[in-house]
């Protein structure tokens, strides 16, 4: 293979690849449909010309047929009148008209056949155009779907589910830790308040029991009169009665008086 042929082949391969990359199937199909539709008026004009030729030949044949009939009548009239010279002239015209009629009839047959073929070809082209248009629209839709799938595939390639999943898990763990810490603090706070309330309630119960015990001792004469009178408005401290005297001392005193 010569150097020039190899160079041409290289150029065709290079530019052919570039052209193929720039070709858009959707636009090419749409342009093809437009081109096919643009040819319909041209086909209609061609069919109209063929049909016009057919109609013109048909009129010429009718005119020649009328001329033959008219010349035949004139020849007969000339013969009756004894004008052989005029009859001979009409006979010459009649022969020429018959030749023209024969040719015109043949041309009309060809024109009629051509007209039918042209109409048939035009109809077939329209049917093919409609079929191709429908196929082109399907291909265009498929091309659009293919483009959408390509875009989705590219999006999925750049989308890493693992990274987002780890982010969600990390945030979930942080939120769970904060929620657990807050719940523990609430429980501790509630437990501290409950323990203080229980301690106060126990202290109040002990005070009530001590006051009741002193009442029993007074009723039994184990305590001197006037002892244990509580001062109004004053709360006894822990380990003391309402009179401010130690309970143990009062019990010893009551035991000594009994003796």
Account of the protein in words:
The protein has 259 residues and is mainly alpha-helical. It has helices spanning 3-22, 25-80, 84-158, 161-219, 247-258. The protein has two domains: 14-158, Helix Hairpins, CATH 1.10.287; 198-224 and 236-259, no CATH class. It is 86% helix and 0% strand. α2 runs antiparallel to α3. The longest helix has 75 residues, at 84-158. The radius of gyration is 64 Å and the shape is rod-shaped.
Outline of the structure:
The chain has helices spanning 3-22, 25-80, 84-158, 161-219, 247-258.
Topology diagram in text:
Blueprint: H1 3-22, H2 25-80, H3 84-158, H4 161-219, H5 247-258
Helix pairs in contact: 2-3
Give the key terms.
2 domains; disordered C terminus; single chain; 5 helices; Helix Hairpins; rod-shaped; mainly alpha; 259 residues
CATH class division of the largest domain: Mainly Alpha
Radius of gyration: 64 Å
Q: Strand portion, in percent?
A: under 5%
Separation of the first and last Cα atoms: 148 Å
CATH topology category name of the largest domain? Helix Hairpins
* Regions with little confidence, pLDDT below 50 for 5+ residues: 228-247, 254-259
Largest sheet: none
Number of domains: 2
CATH architecture of the largest domain: Orthogonal Bundle
Mean pLDDT: 76
Q: How many strands?
A: 0
Oligomeric grouping of the chains: single chain
Count of helix runs: 5
